[in-house]
Amino acid sequence: MKVKVDRDLCIGVGNCVAFAPSVFKLDAEGKAVVLDVSSVDEFTLLEAAKSCPEQAIIIEDDEGTQVYP
User: Fold this and answer.
1) Res. 7 pLDDT band, cuts 50 70 90
2) I want to staple 56 with a disulfide (CB 3.0 to 4.6 A). Which of 4, 10, 17, 42 is the partner?
3) Could you tell me which CATH number the domain at 2-68 has?
4) 3-state DSSP helix/strand/coil percent for the chain, to nearest 5?
């Protein structure tokens, strides 16, 4: 799985960090960045993405097909 954060959409709420702190962190600008996607299961990753109020987290499968949102 591939995970990206659309920095133009991210408002730094931090829900993703609360759901998956080993995958996401807020940087100096208060925006989410991706750390280590392999540290959590797909369910947790999807829940973290769904928790974003701006849908700034984009998840793609290994073939590059967008899974969320």
Assistant:
1) very high
2) 10
3) 3.30.70.20
4) 25, 25, 50
Q: Which long-range contacts (CB under 8 A, 24 or more apart) does 12-16 make?
A: 13/52, 13/53, 13/54, 15/48, 15/51, 15/52, 15/53, 16/48, 16/49, 16/51, 16/52, 16/57
Do 68 and 3 contact (CB within 8 A), yes or no? no
Q: What is the mean pLDDT of the chain?
A: 97
Residue 27 tokens read as 């940087």
Position 24 scores a pLDDT of 98
